[in-house]
Each structure stands twice: as C-alpha cells, then as structure tokens.
Design brief:
Blueprint (H helix, E strand, L loop, with lengths): L16 H7 L4 H4 L18 H14 L10 H14 L3 E5 L2 H12 L5 E5 L5 H10 L5 E5 L4 H6 L5 E7 L11 H10 L3 E5 L4 H4 L9 E5 L13 E5 L1 H13 L6 H12 L1 H20 L4 E5 L9 H7 L6 E6 L8 H4 L6 E2 L9 E5 L16 E5 L5 H20 L1
The protein binds pyridoxal-5'-phosphate.
Pyridoxal-5'-phosphate binds next to helix 5.
Length: about 400
Amino acid sequence: MAPPPTKTPKLTASHSAQTQLVSAGRDPKWTRGLVNTPVMRASTITFDTYADLRAGVKTALDTNTPFYGRMGTPSQWALRDTLTELEHGDGTHLFPSGVAAIAHTLLALLDSGDHILIPDSVYEPVRGIAVKMLKRFNISFDYYDPMSVADAAARINSNTRLIFAETPGSLTFEVQDIPALAKLAGEKGAFLVVDNTWATPLYLNPLDLGADVSIHAGTKYLCGHSDVMVGTATAKGRAWDLLSRASFTAGQTISADDAFLTLRGIRTLDVRLRQHGAQALHIAKWLEAHPAVARVLHPALKSCPGHDIWQRDFKGSTGLFSVILKGGTEPDCAAMVDHLEHFKMGFSWGGYESLILPADPTSIRTATKWQAEGPLLRVHIGLENIDDLMADLDAGLARYTAAISA
Ligand SMILES: *Cc1c(COP(=O)(O)O)cnc(C)c1O
C-alpha cells in the first residue's frame, strides 16, 4: 500500500526557514481557517456506501483523506509535511521516539548480510540497536573515528550498505564532515543517515549536503517542552521509497496529540533556539576562562573538534554542550551538581529548562580512546535568566574545587 504523500506545495527557496516554521503544514483543507490543525484522534473512519469505501481504499492515501487511524489524520500529516519542507526531503515518517526512528530507519534500509559504519561518538542506545537487533538479522557493524573520513573509508567492506553519522556527537560534540561522508557513501552505493537532533532543521539540512535520511529526536527541541516522546525521519529518493513502505508495513505511527504538541513546539523553534543558542555560547565562553575548567566542547568554539566544519556547514548553535573540569573524578562532581538551584540532573534535553549531566565517555568508546583532563559535564542551557544560571554554575564550580582540594 502506498503511503499518504506529503502534499503541501513546497514553498519556494525565497521563503526563509522562519516563515516556513510558521506556515508549513497549515493546509486550509485541514485547518478550515483555524490557525492550528486540530487534534484529530481516530482509529476507525467510517464510509456511508460501498462505493465510498472502495473509492476510499483506492484514493484516500493519494488525496490525504482520512482512511484508517494507523495511516494518520491531518494532525500527523501536518507535522510530516512541516518536517519534509524544513528538511528539504521527499517525505517524513513519524515514530514514537528518536531511538525508534533510528532503529526503524536502519531496519528499513538494510538487508541481512549488510554491513554498516557507526561513529564512535554515537548516541549510546544506537550501540544497543546494533548489538541487540542488527546482529540477530546478520547485519554487521564497525565503529569509526567521527573525526576521520579516512578511518571510515578504511573500514568500508564490499557489503557496506549504510554509513551512520551524528553531528555533533553525543556528549563529546565532534562535528562530522557530512559532505565528505556523503561522497564516500555515494562511491560505494551506500546510504548516509544523519542524526540531526542537535542542530534541528533550522541550523543544518543534511539532505542538502548529500545525506539520504535526516533523523530527529523530536523529543528534544522540536517539541521543546519536555513532555513528548517523538522521532522523525525525513528522506529523499530511494531511501524515502524504502523507509515509507517499511514504516507503514510495520505500523509505525504516533498519536494525534503528540503530533499536535510537536508541531506547536516547532512554531516557536526559531525564537527558542536563538535564546538557547546565545545564552549557551555566552556561558561556554565564560566557562572556557574559568579556573576550574580545562576545556569546553561547544561546536562554535575553536577548541571543539570539527569547529571549522561547524563554521562551514551549520547556520547556528543550540543550547547543549559539554565542559571538562580540571582534575578530580566523576564522583567529585557530586559536590557541584547536588546543590545546583537551576540545573537539574536528568536525561534528554531541548526543553525550556536548564539541565546538567555528569558522564564518562571512556567505557562507551571502541574505535577511539577518550582522553580528558578531568570529569565531563554535559549542560543544557535553558531559557532562565543568564545571570542566575552563571551564578549557579559559579557556586557549583567553587564547591567542586573545594571538594578536590580537600
Ligand atoms: C535523545 C536523543 C536520541 C533519542 O531520542 P528519544 O526520543 O529519547 O528516543 C537520539 N539521538 C540523539 C542525538 C539524542 O540526543
């Protein structure tokens, strides 16, 4: 069965992304003049006559007419269209989480006997997908140095069918050379799949740089309010054919309510990211000069691996980065993080609130060796007042320094 196409006419290139954030997916056929496409919850959609039912089966999907809940209603279609437009793809599918989007994309594009390459800086649960799922289907994998396209090239086999990338990398923020990886994948007839969660479609469009699929944990900035789990995969060409078919076959969908909330979040993505990005960069620069800090891993800072690539390919930076402290160990961080007022500890990020997370990449690495002067803290800079956030971090770093010199 063909998937419902994403039908809204593409805006011309002269439409700026900010305007797309506001206008994309608002098909008058669905909104009937309401500003927002309503939440349309459905499993069954009824037909009055046998002829309507038959016609529905034949044409519903091509005309974006509701047919059966699993194929979506305008609530999901508006979100799909918006992402397709923002990421310049042929279509978008929705998944119940970012991890589900990654797992399903890999299963949709790969066959038994294939081999894939995964960056050593990958979001850790992707290693779980490889070990616990791909391996069972006889799909082999190798990790590569995220900063070395030559290393990726050296690990390519005759059966390499897909290169996975994540830019910048989780926890350690290596910015990957997507055009060079796309060239490498292209030469081998392999797909390039990019996890674009950090940059959002506003600051990076991997499909324009040669990738086949761009994935988002919409859980983060797209939703932006820490209350939805959602994943998206936008693809083009052959990758979209395979992904859309497999996604419908496997029954992948999200609730109308979650689609509505995610699209509501997207409408304000630009203003939120400007504030997250500006505050984070200011705090990153301040931390860089702080006596308790050894290094700051923020793509917009020179010291970040791949900073020059960030400068070449990205349109901005967001609110998430890491700090490496001087001396001490991860447990010493407790003195700092236990008493923070505004930075709470928790997984995920991308909501309006500040977060902090001590993490040790050492045990995660397999292709490269993690070397650092001290423990790593990942911070998400929220929308609180910047002076409040800096005072909180400053007091925390003083507690850390006192703890390691005690
Ligand atoms: C959070 C995250 C994911 C997973 O998203 P979930 O919605 O939590 O499953 C994937 N990739 C990156 C880079 C992430 O930060």
